[in-house]
Structures are given as structure tokens and as C-alpha cells.
Amino acid sequence: MTTKTSLLKVILLGDGGVGKSSLMNRYVTNKFDAHLFHTIGVEFLNRDLEVDGHQVTLQIWDTAGQERFRSLRTPFYRGSDCCLLTFSVDDNQSFLNLGNWKKEFIYYADVKEPEKFPFVILGNKVDVTERQVSTEEAQRWCQENGNYPYYETSAKDATNVAVAFEEAVRRVLAMEERTDHLIPTDTVKLHRKPRSAASCCS
Amino acid sequence: MLLLLLTAPQPIGTGDAARAGAAANESTEEAGLSVVVLDFLCCSVKSMKCREKEEEEKKRSREGGKTEEEELDGFLCLVTSPIEEEEEEEEATSMSSPRSRANMVHVYNCHPYASQQIVQVEQEPGLVCCGGGALFVVACGGCKVEAYSVEQEGCPLICRFSTMGTVRSIQHSKTGDYLVTIEEKNSATYLRAYTNWRYQAEGKARVGVRLLGHLLRGASVRGGVQMEIIEIPLSERPVAVACCSVTGDLLVGCEKTLVLFTLRRPNQQNLQSQSPWPNTQQSSSQSQGQTSSSNQNVSILDFERSVIVHLPKMSFKQVALCGGYVAVQAELEVLVLKLEASSEPQTPDDSSDTNTCDDPLEDQSDLLLIPRQQELLGDRAKDCDIPVSIEKTGLEDKGQYTLSYVLFRRFTPEFFQGCSVEETQLHSLQLYPLYTRSQSASTEEPACVFCFFSLPNAGYLYSLKGGVELLSAYQYPEKVLEAVLTDTLLHVITKNALQCFTVRCAAVAARIDDPYIDTTMKACPPCSLEVCALRMQLFIGLRSVCVYGRHVILLSAADMETPDESERSTQRRSRKWTISSPKETSAAAHGWNLYVVDTVSPLVLYREMVEYSRHYSETNPQAQSLRHLLSEAHLLLCASSLQQSREGDHTVSLQKDTEGQTEGQTEGQTETQTETQSDRQELQEALRQNCAQLGDCYSRASQKDCHQALPYYRMSGLSVTEVIVRNRPLPSSLHSYGLGFLFYLKHFLLEETEQSLSQETADEVVDIFSQSDPSEIISVCASPSMTNISPARTLRVFQHLEATAGVSVPLTITMATMMLRLDDLPQFTQLMDRHPEMLLVYGFIDEPRLLLHGGGGGPHTLVRPISLTRQLAQSQPGLLVAGMVALHENNKAQLEQADHIFKELGCENCLLVDFWEATLMASSQEAVIQELLFRLASVYIERLTHTNSDAHSGLPRTRPQRRPLKSADDLINSSSHYGSLYPWLTVLCPAHTTSFQHQEALHKLQSLLCGPSMSIGSVLPLLERLSEDTLWGFSLHLLCATRRGQFDSSIEKLLDRCPQAIIAFANHHLQDRHMALWWKKLLPELCNRTRAAGDNSILLAALKETLVVVATETSPAQFLELVPDDGTASYFLPHLMTCSQRHLLA
Hints:
The structure holds two protein chains of two kinds.
Chain A: E1 6-14, H1 20-29, E2 42-51, E3 54-63, H2 70-73, E4 82-88, H3 92-96, H4 98-109, E5 119-124, H5 135-146, E6 150-152, H6 161-181
Parallel strand pairs in A: 1-3, 1-4, 4-5, 5-6
Antiparallel strand pairs in A: 2-3
Chain B: E1 6-7, H1 16-30, H2 40-64, E2 76-77, H3 83-93, E3 106-107, E4 113-118, E5 125-131, E6 134-139, E7 144-149, E8 157-162, E9 166-173, E10 178-185, E11 188-195, E12 207-211, H4 219-222, E13 228-231, E14 238-243, E15 250-254, E16 257-264, H5 268-274, H6 280-287, E17 302-310, E18 318-322, E19 325-329, E20 333-342, H7 350-356, E21 374-377, E22 389-392, E23 400-410, E24 427-434, E25 448-454, E26 458-463, E27 469-475, E28 480-485, E29 489-494, E30 497-502, H8 505-513, E31 532-538, E32 542-548, E33 551-557, H9 563-577, H10 584-589, E34 592-599, H11 602-619, H12 624-657, H13 664-699, H14 709-716, H15 720-727, H16 739-750, H17 759-772, H18 777-781, H19 791-805, H20 809-821, H21 825-832, H22 837-846, E35 852-853, E36 864-865, H23 867-875, H24 877-889, H25 895-904, H26 911-922, H27 926-946, H28 968-974, H29 983-988, H30 996-1010, H31 1016-1023, H32 1031-1043, H33 1047-1057, H34 1062-1069, H35 1077-1093, H36 1097-1113, H37 1116-1122, H38 1129-1145
Parallel strand pairs in B: 3-31, 12-13
Antiparallel strand pairs in B: 1-2, 4-34, 5-6, 6-7, 7-8, 9-10, 10-11, 11-13, 14-15, 15-16, 16-17, 17-22, 18-19, 19-20, 20-23, 21-23, 24-25, 25-26, 26-27, 28-29, 29-30, 30-31, 32-33, 33-34, 35-36
Helix pairs in contact in B: 8-12, 11-12, 12-13, 13-14, 13-16, 14-16, 17-19, 19-20, 20-21, 22-24, 23-24, 24-26, 26-27, 27-30, 27-31, 28-30, 30-32, 32-33, 33-34, 33-35, 35-36, 36-38
GO cellular component, one term (chain A): plasma membrane
Membrane topology (chain A): Lipid-anchor
InterPro entries (chain A): P-loop_NTPase, Rab9, Small_GTP-bd, Small_GTPase
């Protein structure tokens, strides 16, 4: 049991077309495909890595950003250890939607203490020359919303991708270390409150 | 007799080592210790001691630096007991505590485990399961599943994939080829199904995730095949899951409820119509160069929540599902239910009743209630205090489900050796289906379903279909951790050993498969045949076991406290058993191992058992153990043939489930088919051999079982001669023929087979019976199979028999037959004259085959005459007829069979008619009588038309006939069916006017028509052929008309043809209610005719006679009325006077 690797669920959220799937692909397979399909529903990939001496399996969840896929993706927010809110620096609307994504995640993931939950903000497509969102704007938003780390990435040329995911892992590990010191009073709750997600199978 | 054998179990492995072990074993056995008997309690103590000793030895060897090969791997203690004892005990204790059952079990030291491989797993395995040719290993505490191929050498990795949470439980479903897991993540429990897992080869492909029911055309539809995870939301925490091997349905046990999910396999069309999205995106993506054709084979699965069963009073540990049967297991309880879909709306039934009725004891929960042991079978199981109710789910137009109780078993926690009360918990719940040969490939419903569950000290196997019953109870020598049931074997693991026991599933299936089992035609060892252990194979630190096909997968992990020990043992083991592998050193470094132990094919195991049985048959052929071992071997073959018949289907279905695999598979399949063909022949041959050996076994058996020799020999396909040779006693021994052998022989000879024995064999049969059972020798010699018997030799045997046992009629007849065969007619006649005919007839009744062959096979089989029949037809036809009548009357021969015999003898015209006449006399069956009356009437008519009626014209046209045995007078005098001839018939056809034969035939027919039994209606059509021109022909027609009451016309006709007979006719027939015809018909008729004919003396005489009668019967006034107006008064006056006087007197 000493070699136990922890499984960390990291979820990528953000508007359709900001490059969530590309980020995941770049990180896990180190490949980039400019003509990826739209993601339908939810998919994931795993990657093992070592961060600060911790053996970790990172389970990266890629979601469909388009609104019409909402009912397919929201049931799987639960159990996430970290959320990567993603926008595209060449698309101001995707940046403006960050708050909505955060809200949707907190609601469906049933996060107990939203203010403590580790979010990481990714501004993707920095390789593009026509930017609509400036670094400062983004950083300000992060500062104001909970002091979240912000990374400017490019899945196309691999800028900052690994760093960003590693940061996500560090955030989670830091959270766990904090909770490890607490007395575990919050045992398994079997009767969760009824949720809209659970009724979607009807 | 208790013997103890301590022998080092052979290392399982390839080639020489195993053989060397076997040799060592044999040498021990040759020392006279072939049977090893020991009580199991004693065994466990002993084996514990052995282990201590082993450890000591190890210690010593470590200290002394001995080579490890010299060490003993352990000891195997074998336990057997005399069968009778065990049966008695079983009877007495079957319902009481499992511990008090007989702690005896046969152990044969066979080698069901052939070879072993170590799976190259890098991380310590936590959970293991298998299915679909794969072994799934969940890394300890992990979220990663690795799939290895168990069917390929070295168990190569197929793929690895990550799960979404920490796997707590994992199962594979054969149907649908999906995996289902219970997982935990961040303190929440999830239920998930993993489909298309085979497409996760590199572990780097994206995995789709969706909720139950949310089918979408995701990546798996548009691009390559994608692994997909179906998340199944549940309102309660899942505790246990099970997949139905028949349907692929999924049963989930939550804390107090069971949820059944039915597997759905929607096709592409359905999918599109279900898809909530317009097609724009997909069509654009397809235009980007993707083809959808490759997606035809993609397995898209989904589940539908179909029913929820509430069991509020049970907390499950395990669940099982198979073809509508649902089994749940709590710590010490097992409940099996049958869930059936019914189209009728569910009426509020007893399930709701049980729900509402509260247990009175429930309130007293502060009392410590110790539940009592219970075993409730079938309907009785509803008396268990566990209420069950169904909650409807799914769509409204779906059928309803009904529940019925099938089995309930409750145990009490009890201490038993090496297992504390707390540890006494049920485990290894399993529902196991078995298909029979007669089932078609498409049949979904298995013919048999078995339920297995186990306590640490005993396992229980129930058969559920066709009446619930406990099939076997397995007594374990020590605490068993897990058990897995297969077609042929039950594998169990204790902490330090893998053991295997035999099972009785095949015996149950064989009986369902073939209704002729347990008859004189076929046999199969009984379902109640006591089970035995075949092998105990030592391992260290076993944790879990699972089985795929012939592969037993074992997970072992040494205790952490003794790392040295485990390390050493793994090293030792690996050196001895494993195929060499480069990673061996690394495997030895850790304390765990994952083994794939292959079991040998049933045929190989069968051969070993046969080899083993040879020891018994040499030392003690009557031993129960020999029979038991051969019976075990028989059931192995049965199971194997059941397996084979399903194997074809299996490959197909497997292929369906794993579509998208290599194209070479079809090639492989045909190869498999030809292989199966030769396997099947090999199996059939083995089965015949085994039946022959079982036949040998039973042929020497005691009174109780000896009859089994017959079906087994029959199934063996051996000829009688071969069976006789097998049963020939050694010249040196005093050993005589076994009861079973004699039973077999008798039965064979009784049956009307076409197979005749050679003279040599037939003579040997005579010897066998004269030695062992002289009372049967006559019926033996009468068998058609014995036609080649040597008559002179047999006569000597008979003469000796007569000298010792006295004269008997059947013996005399048999001897006479032998004389006939020797062409010694004088001797024949002399012998036949020894007894009066009546006694000889009784002799034929005793043994009909003395007279005819072939009658034994039922009413429609062909019979044939034998030499004696032919001789009797010549010399004693009366005896032959009497004999045949006796056989017919005693239901030993049918009418048609007798007809056939006489036709064969060439006397259908004489003896056959004699036989009919005689049978008519003897029979009391109305149907037979009517049939014979008709036949005889036809024969007589035939004779009348074909013989010349002229008495003086010489020979009849047909060939000269033997004089009938009975003349017409004989028949009239002795048979009630032949009536006395009416007097007017004699007037009409005076005797001696025709030939004798003609006369006889006429008289017989007339007599039949005069008799009470002949139905005129039936004979009329026959008579139509006869003309009325001749007087005899006229007489017959007139007889019929009279019998039918047509007096008026008869009188007219008779007056026309033969008036001299009219008074005899009238006297006979115009009586009582027909009296009035005298004056109403006869008198006017006569008056008219006399008037017309004038001086006809015959008519006048008749008139006179008539007037006398009329005058006597009428009043004077009536008489006056009758007198014709034109008559002479003087002629009538005397009569009127008589009339008046008589009237006055009255």
C-alpha cells in the first residue's frame, strides 16, 4: 500500500472551441490535430506523472462545451478534484463566460466549500496573433474570483500545457495535505440530496 | 479399516517432474496402501502437524544449507470411508447442522491441474476477475485494470485502462463482453459498466462516458471504436453486482433492494431515432472523410432499469443472477427467488401480504435471538420470514414481473475447527446454468440451473429446475476462503491449498437430456453419488480464485509478517513450476503472485481415473471404490460431451461479442470445428470404454445393483460374445459368474434380437446357466439367439438336468426340439408322448418361445415358426392349434401373429380355420369373437363357392384339404356360437345331396346363422355373392331374411321354392308374437295358392296343418271370419268344431 498512486480527476470546462480537447491531447499524447471533432458528452484520458515525489494518475476529463450537451456533461462533474476553466484568448465571449462555467461546475459538482475548491484558469491559443483578451484582464479576473492561478497556454505549440496540468496536481495535493490534518468527521453520506442530474435518466 | 498415506503431492508441471511424482506415488501404492482412509477431522489435525513438521524441516535445511529440492512440499492426507456408512449418516443428518454431517469424503490422488503460468503483473493485484478469454486485474488499491489473455501462452497483456474511481468489485459479463464495477471516489460509491474495453490497447485512447439510457452517437460511432463507460445512477449505495451469463442482464444489490437492469443492444437505426440531436454535425464530420461502414460491428450496449425488488430484512453480501433466478446471500442466509416477466397486470399478491405482516418477534429486538437453522425448498421457501416486494419501474407498457420463492437456507453461527464464530460466514454464491445436448443453439433458457454457496467448512450445491433439491454437500477439511463451481469440478481455496472436488451437475443434466436414462436401455451414475476430492495442491497465502474455462486463476499474497518465508517459498516454487521467464527474479522479490493453473481436459482426467481404477480392479474388483471411481469418470465424460455440444455455439457467440477482431478468426473456427469432430469421436470411444468397465463392475455386483450391468453393457456397444469373454472366470479361481452378468445375459436372450450367437458362444451360454442358474436354462435355450446351439451337447446337459432336477414338461419339449434338430423322429415322438397334450399346452404357455419366435417384442412384431412348429403341423396339428389358442388366450400371441404363423406353415386353409374355430370356442372377448365370426363366415362362403356342390362329381377344384379338426356337428355340440340347425333347413337341403366338404361348409355357415352371436348385418354383404338359384344358396338367404324378421316375404319365397318346408318353417318361427302370421299371412297365402294350383297335395297338406293351428289359436268367431267365402263348408267345419270345442272347454 505504500506505493499507492492517487487518482486525481481533473475536469476541463469552457466554451465550445476554446481547445479543451486539444489541451488534453497535447498533454497526454503530445499531439495536435487542428481539425478535431467537437466533443460529444464526456470523455477522459489518463496520464501518470510524478509531482514533488507523489505518484499520481491524472484523469483528465474533457467535456462538450456546447450548450446543447449540457445534460450529458453535468452528471460527471461530481467527484472532481480540480477544475480547469478554459477560455480562448482570441475569443472575448469565452472569457466572459468563465463565471458561468464556474457556477455550473460548483452547482453540479456539489462542492461543499466552493471558495476552497481548486480552480485553475487557462487562457488557450496564445499562438494566435489577434488577441481579444489581454493577460492583465485575465489575471485580474482570477484575482477577483478567488485568487486562482492563471496560465496562458497553446495546445498547438505546447506552450505551458504541462506546467498548467502540474499546477493543477499541486493544488489538489496541497488541498489533500490540509484535509489530512483534519479529523475525519465527514464520513460517507449515503443519502445525497436529490439532484436534477440523477433524474436525467428518466 | 483406516489407513493413512502420507505422500508428497506431485509438483504440477510439465513433463518429467509430474511423471516422476506419479511414479513415486505408484510405488507407495504398490506397497499395499492404495486405499487411504481417514476421518477428516483427524486429517486436519494431521495436516497441521505436517505443516509444523514441514516448517521445522525448512528451518533445519536453512540452517544446514540443504538443497531445497529435498524438502517436502507438504503432505496430502487422503480420506475415504466405506460408502454404506456414509449414506446412512447422510440420511440421518441431512437437515441438521452441517457440522454433524458425516465428515467423510473420498479423496483420489488424481492430477486435474496440469500446468501453471505466472502472469506478469507489475503492480500487486487487488481484485481479479475473468471472462471472455481475459483475466482482469485491478491493481491493489488502484484505478487501473489490466486485461491479460488467459488463452494464450504466457498470458500476454491485451490492454490496460483506467477506471474512474477505486474499484471495490468487478465482474465480467460474457454476453455483451462488458465489465461492471462498483467504484469509490471521494467517499461516494458508483456503479459503472465498461464496454468496448478491448479497444483500449495502448491506454491512450479517449474514453467516452455517459449516463445509463443516454445513448449518443459519440466518437464510437463516428470514428474508430471507442471504449465507453456507462454510469448507472442509483439511489442507494451498491453493495454487490452480478451478471446473468444467459442474458447479460445486470443485477445490483444495494443495501436493502435489488435492482435488475436488462441489457439492451440497440442497432444503429434505433440509435439515430433516439438521438435527440439533429444530424448536421455528424453529417459534416462524415464528409470530412470518416466512414460509417466500419461502425456496423460496434457493440453498443445500454441497460434499462426493469425492476426493483425490496428486501428490507436482509443485508446482502453477494448476489447472483441466472436466467430469471435471483440469489442473494447475507452473512448466514441464502434466498433464491424466481423473477418472471408476465404480461398480465400484477394482482396484489402475497408479497404485499408478507410485507405488511409484522414479525411478532421484531419488537423484542433487545432480546438476543438466535435464528434457527432452516432449509426451505420450493414453495415452502415463502415461509421464511423475509418479505419481498416488487416495485415497478420502466415504461408502463412493459410486462409486469412476478416473484416466487425458490430456496431459503439459514445457518447458525457455529464454531468449527480453525474458524471462529465471527468467521462463519457464507461466501462464493453462484448461480450456474447448464445446457443439454438436445437444446438448440438459439435456446436462451438453460436446461438446468444450479445454486452453490459455501460456509468456511462446507459447501452446498442445489439444483433449482424441475424441483429444488440439495444435490451435494461438500465437507472441507479446513477453512475454505473461496469456491468456484464449473461443469466438471468445484475448485476451492484454503489459505494454503487449491483443492478440487467432483460435481454432480452432469448427472442432473444427463437425466433432463435423455428420458431413457435409468431404464434397462441406458444408465448414468445417480445424482446422489457421493462427491469426492480429487486433488489438494499446495500454495502459500491464497487470497482469491476465479475460473475461466479450464483456467483456474489464483491470487496469492504472503503475509507481511513473515516476508522471509514467503520470499523463499516463491523462489522455490518458481524454480520448480514455472515456465522460465526473464522477469522471474522480479516476481520472486514480491510476496504475491498471480497464477493461471490449467486443468487437464476431462478426457485426460478420465484416463487417469481409469488408470487409477486398474489398481482397484486388480486388488479388489468388488470394491465400492472402483465403481465410484468409474462412475466419477463417467460423469466427467458426460459433462465433457455437454460442453462439446455447446462449444460451437460458444465460439460463435464469443465472436459476436468481440467483433472487430482479426479476420483469421473464421479460419480458426473451422479448425476448431474439425478438432471438435475428432474430439467428439474420442469422447464417444471413451464413453463406450467406460460403460464397458462399469458394466464389468455391476456384473459382479450384489443383488441390489446388479441390474445396472445391463444398460451399461448395452451402452458400451460390446457384443454378447465380448461380454461373455470379459466375464469368464479365471480357470484358477473359484469365482463364479456374477449376478449382474447373468441378469444381462438373461435379458439379452429374452429380447428378440436378430443377432444369433455362434455355436461356440451359444454352448458357452448353456454351460454358464447350467452352472449358475439351471432354472433359467430352458428359457435361455428357447431364445432365438441360441439357434446355433449344438443339439447333442445340449441334450447331454438336459439329460443331466433331468436326472438331478426331475422331469418337467418344458424340459421335455426342449429335449424333443433338440431331437428334432438331430433328425431323430422316433425319439422326438417318444418324448412328446411322455405327457398328455393338455400338459404340453401348459408347457407352451410357460415358455411360448418353445413354439414360436419373435413374440416377445410386442403385439406388432413379426413372429415366425420354428422347427417344432413345423413338425407339429405335420404330426400333431391338434396340439399345435391348442397351443396357439392357449398362447392367444394368455396374451402371448396376437391373432395376427397366429395368422402369420399358420400362413408361414402353409396351412391358412385348414389349420388356420381350425385355429379360428377353436379360438372362437375359447375366447370370451367380444371383439375377438365378432372378428372370428366374420372371418369364419367368409371362409365358409369361400369354401361353398369353390367346392363343387355335386356329391358325385369327384374332386373339388381346390387342392385336397386336410379334414378339418372339428366337424359341423362337433362345433354345434361344443360351441355356443354355433346354433342347432333349424328343422326346415333339413327339409330344404337334405343331407348327402352334396359333397362332404360342401356339406360341412354349408352346415357350419348355417349353424353360425342359426346361432346367437353372428351379426346378420355384417354377413349380408358377403352373401350377396351367392346366388339363390341353388337350394343351399336359397337356404342361406332365407335364413338371413328370417333372422331379420322378414317373415312375410320369407313365407312367400318358401312357398314358391319349397312348400314342403313351410310347415316346419312356420312351426319354428311363427310363435308367440308372430303367431298371428299363421292366419294373417300363411292361411290366406295357402288358400290362394291351393285355389290356383288345384290339386297340389303338398299345399293341401300344408293348408290342413295350418288350419289345425289356426283353429287351436283363435276363437270360433275369429275362425269363421278367416274361412274364405268360396270354401267348401264341409272342409272347414271339422276345424271350426275343434275350435268351438276347445273354446267351450276353456
